[in-house]
Amino acid sequence: MDQHRASAMEQNIQAAEKQIKRVSQSLTELTMLCQLNKREISGHIALRCVEYTERLALIVRSLPFCTRVSSTPQLINKAILAEIPVKMGYTEENWFCLRIPMLLPRKEHGGSEYIRGWLYPAMQDFFRDAEPVRYDNCVLIFRHVYDRSRPERQYRDHDNIELNMVVDSVAMFLLYDDAPMRCRHYYTSVAGTEERTEVYVVPFENFLEWLEKEPSFPDEGVKLFEKRHSATR
Q1: Residue 103 to residues 13, 156, 196, Cα–Cα distance (Å)
Q2: pTM summary value
Q3: What single string gives the DSSP state of each residue in the chain?
Q4: At the N or C end, where does the chain have fewer CB atoms within 10 A?
Q5: Which among 19, 165, 32, 172 has a CA at the least distance from the CA of 96?
Q6: CA 98 – CA 199 distance, rounded (Å)
Q7: Do the beta carbons of residue 25 and residue 17 sit within 8 Å?
């Protein structure tokens, strides 16, 4: 390892250790607050812990690039996809659905690059051998699923959630254009057994149908298919 790479490695390791200490301190504080049943304060500490953890993930991902491993990007993408099992596919109605096993971060936590790090590789992998699909005049739907045990006051306002990187990634693979008159947005929040984020791309003429069916979606999520049906059923 040359001197420049070694110096970059050391700097990143120090930065990672700093974030690890912050995460550890936040978890210790969070444990104490939970024991005291301080739900409101513990919520803020938990969000702070998320912020530190996301920063740590970005730093750690840069460490392999300080080595001479030529296949570093591919190996990193493989590791990310294994740890963040993003699911996607088409519903029975031929609507595209992206199912993210977590709630998206708040805008102020700067999670845009974090999202890009795992969402783009996941979508690239899905569409590598898939038939190209382009939706026009559609509705991009964000369905935020919260744990039923979470107090409703802890649900986030929709305009405070980091969505831009998700919109950009979906548009790159699925839309002709994400201009306002060709791609409308709809946001909703519901309670479920486990927290996640669902993103649907639905033709505008089918939006009312989606609204009618949404209350009856199964708790684990609708069934997804790898390929679109030859004709809408």
Answers
A1: 28, 10, 5
A2: 0.69
A3: --HHHHHHHHHHHHHHHHHHHHHHHHHHHHHHHHHTT-HHHHHHHHHHHHHHHHHHHHHHHHGGGGS--TTHHHHHHHHHHHHS--EEEE-TTS-EEEEESSPPPBGGGT-HHHHHHHHHHHHHHHHSSSPP--B-SEEEEEEEEEETTS-GGGSPPGGGB--HHHHHHHHHHHBS---TTTEEEEEEEEEESS-EEEEEEEEGGGHHHHHHHGGG--TT----BSS--SS--
A4: C
A5: 172
A6: 5
A7: no
Q: What is the pLDDT of residues 83-93, one digit of tens each?
A: 567 899 999 99
CB 99 within 8 A of CB 149: no
User: Whole-angstrom Cα distance, residue 128 to residue 200?
Assistant: 20
**Cα atoms in the Cβ-side hemisphere of radius 13 Å centred on 72:** 11
The dihedral sign for the CA sequence 48, 53, 140, 220: negative
Cβ atoms < 10 Å from Cβ of 189: 16
Q: In this predicted model, what pLDDT tens digit does every residue of 202-215 receive, in sequence order?
A: 999 999 999 999 99
Question: Which are the contacts of 64, defined by CB distance < 8 A and separation ≥ 6?
Answer: 72, 75, 76
CA distances from 195 to 13, 82, 191 (A): 31, 18, 8
Tokens representing residue 98 in the block: 């992206």
84, two tokens:
């963040």
Query: Rounded to an integer, what distance in angstroms lies between the CA atom of residue 49 and that of residue 23?
Result: 6
CA end-to-end span of the chain? 58
